[in-house]
Amino acid sequence: MVAALTMMRKKKIAQVQNEAKHSEVEVHSFLIHS
């Protein structure tokens, strides 16, 4: 049970980090193009 919760938490953290990376890239490209 605890292991499953840890896995879900790790997945969620990875997802958040992924989204942060994507938005960072979007901001950079926006700054470059403007």
Question: In a nutshell, what does this entry contain?
Answer:
This protein is mostly helical. The chain is built from 1 helix and no strands. It has one helix at about 1-34.
Radius of gyration: 15 Å
Query: Looking at the chains present, what oligomeric state does this protein adopt?
Result: single chain
Poorly predicted ranges: none
Structural class: mainly alpha
- The overall pLDDT, averaged over residues, is 89
Count, helices: 1
List key phrases describing it.
about 35 residues, mainly alpha
Describe the fold and architecture.
With 34 residues, the protein is mainly alpha-helical. The chain has one helix at 2-33. It is built from one helix and no strands. The mean pLDDT is 89.
Question: What's the structural blueprint in terms of helices and strands?
Answer:
Blueprint: H1 2-33
